[in-house]
Amino acid sequence: MATAISVEHLNYAYPGVDNTPGVAVFADLNLTVEEGSFVAILGSNGCGKSTLAKHFNSILLPSGGKVYVCGMDTANDDLLIKIRRNVGMVFQNPDNQIVANVVEEDVAFGPENLGIASPEIRKRVDNALKQVGMYEFRAHAPHLLSGGQKQRIAIAGIIAMEPKCIVLDEPTAMLDPKGRREVMDTVLKLNREKGITVVLITHHMDEAAQAQRVVVLHKGDVAADGTPKEVFSQVELLHRIGLAAPETVELCYELRQNGLHLPLDRLDIEECAQALYAEVKA
Amino acid sequence: MAPILEIKNLTHTYSAGTPFEHKALDSVSFSVERGEFIGIIGHTGSGKSTLMQHMNGLLKPTSGNVILDGVDIWQDKKTTRQARFRVGLVFQYPEYQLFEETVYKDIAFGPKNMGLKPDEVDRRVREAASFVNLTEAQLKVSPFDLSGGQKRRVAIAGVIAMEPEILILDEPTAGLDPVSREEILENIQSYRRAKNATIMMVSHSMNDVARLTERLLVMNGSRLAMDGTPDEVFTRAQELLDMGLDIPEVTRVFLRLRELGLPVDPVYSIDQAVAVLKKLKEGTAHA
Question: Which residue of B207, B244, B252 is in closest CB contact with A269?
Fold first, then answer.
């Protein structure tokens, strides 16, 4: 399978202010993301998640090492537009990402900037809004929509640019449970049906559990990397670095400490209930 | 003892008389005792934020009353102004409201506005900083040089420095990692203990509210749908799900276990779940 994003020996430090030393984030980070995959990135605040995301479309450039996106070196200035077209970013606060007064105009902003012909823009905007389930809101004013709806508009704006890869930096952090579900369902659908590579940065373990692969960052390095089941069963490691496993796993872990025999890879309610039922009845 | 806060038949209609007219609160009534820790839950648009903004007079009721310590806060201008200091409001993502050059000045902004003497302002800034674990050195730096979790704590300290009798927080832990979340919740608890303050916390994290609070208010469709202890509220788990609320995963696991035929009552924390299942397992082992 082809590689969508490749991080090689990444070294990065935020520059210091007034001759003070900078803040080192990555010393030697290596990571590849396969095309068409859905990767969740977890880590406590300050571990470098957002800094890494900003390397994926040339918002930040490596101090050392390389970041390649669809084979393109992010440090190559000539490729900047092409890179940004291939990797769309969605941030935490929906209100900071909406620029127009009408939903469809907002979605059209990206493709317009790419210099695409009007009829094609019309087609892309309609398609993008349909994909995120916001087509009937196309003539609405964005500020009257809910957080989940606004975030889906932001995602539509990215899809309209037809990127190969979408990077979402805590897209659900400011949303309520319903908004979170709407956004997660949209992201999963784009990945499955359109084959778009998704990198999802999140603090919600239940969201990460829906990815194909979970990467845990700690102090600028990869602390764990594998399927959700592989990563979340490392409960003690997660605790050590200030994270938690999904509740179902935490419950099984605590019961194991109390002498019960339970697996640590039960990520959904049904699996967990079945395992508990079997153990209690045993 | 008389309640510290009474909400009586509170109704609020936005944009009355326009096509956008919307009743955000509909005859909401409850009263709050001094020192209580109350969780407020409800989906977006259920009226939580509108309710919060009435408690210190940011919004005026369309009808009904907000009575603080026996006095209607809209009785006269002075009372309304006093309510703004006695009831502290911490909004969502309060760190976006930081603006001063140093952490110290930012925390001092509220108490200064209250017209306190410089000594008193200084005492309050230091005390508030200590409640949220900010060090002496951090008081001197620009708030914009701090991490997200630290900024959040500075913003909370700015409200605590006004020493409100009632502290109301809208999703104080949103967007933070588990360790930072825990720290902020600890900070809130320590303020409550030290000042016998009343805390009301709006949260989407059912886990946090269930674990920390003694009483939950559930808002749904502009009305107060439930008012009870976490035990009472979570026993009605199915109704909560129907309202579009998230209930803790352990609660859902237990609902499923009950369907499977295990004699368990709903729980909402891992500790409770462990205790119940351990007992159940021992029971079958001895049977």
Answer: B252
The parent domain of residue A64 ranges over 3-245
Identify the band that residue B199 occupies on the pLDDT scale cut at 50, 70 and 90: very high
Whether the per-residue pLDDT at B254 is higher than 70: the answer is yes
**Of the listed ranges A226-240, B4-18, B255-269, the one predicted with least confidence:** B255-269
Q: Does the pLDDT of residue A13 top 80, yes or no?
A: yes
Q: Buried b / exposed e across B235-273, counting CB within 10 Å, b at 16+?
A: bbbeebeebbbbbbbbbbbbbbbeeeebebebbbbbebb
Other beta carbons within 10 Å of A4: 25
The interface predicted TM-score (ipTM) is 0.81
**In the numeric block, which tokens belong to residue A62?**
């490596």
B223, part of any domain: yes
- The 10 Å CB-count burial string (b at 16+, else e) for B56-71 is bbebebeebbbbbbee
Q: Would B118 be classed as within a structural domain? A: yes
Residue B283 to chain A, least CA–CA distance (Å):
9
Domain of residue B192, CATH code: 3.40.50.300
Residue B217 falls inside a structural domain: yes
Q: Are residues A195 and A265 in the same domain?
A: no
The total number of structural domains that make up chain B: 1
Residue B119: exposure state from Cβ atoms within 10 A (0-12, 13-18, ≥19): exposed
- Residue-range definition of the domain harbouring residue B58: 5-228
A167/A279 same-domain check: no
Mean of the per-residue pLDDT values for chain B? 91
**Cβ-Cβ contacts under 8 Å, A218 against chain B:** none
How far apart are alpha carbons B80 and B77 in whole angstroms? Answer: 5
Q: Are residues A227 and A259 in the same domain?
A: no
Residue A175 main-chain phi, psi, to 5 deg? -105, 160
Q: What is the average pLDDT across B115-139?
A: 94
Task: Identify all chain A residues contacting B40, using CB atoms and an 8 Å cutoff.
Answer: none
Rounded to an integer, what distance in angstroms lies between the CA atom of residue A89 and that of residue A108? 16
- Burial degree of B26 (CB within 10 A; 0-12, 13-18, 19+): middle
Task: Say if CB B157 and CB B132 are below 8 A apart.
Answer: yes
* Residue B115 in domain: yes
Predicted TM-score (pTM) above 0.95: no
Cβ contacts of A176 on chain B, cutoff 8 Å: 43-44, 204
pLDDT at B287 over 70: no
What phi and psi, each to the nearest 5 degrees, are found at residue B25? -135, 135
**What's the CATH code of the domain at A190?**
3.40.50.300
What share of chain B has pLDDT > 90, as a percent?
63
Greater model confidence, B174 or A188: A188
Q: Which residues of B touch A (CB under 8 A)?
A: 43-45, 92-93, 147-149, 174-180, 204, 207, 244-246, 248-250, 252-253, 256-257, 260, 262, 270-271, 273-274, 277-278, 280-281, 284
CA distance A56 to A29: 13
Our count of domains for chain A comes to 2
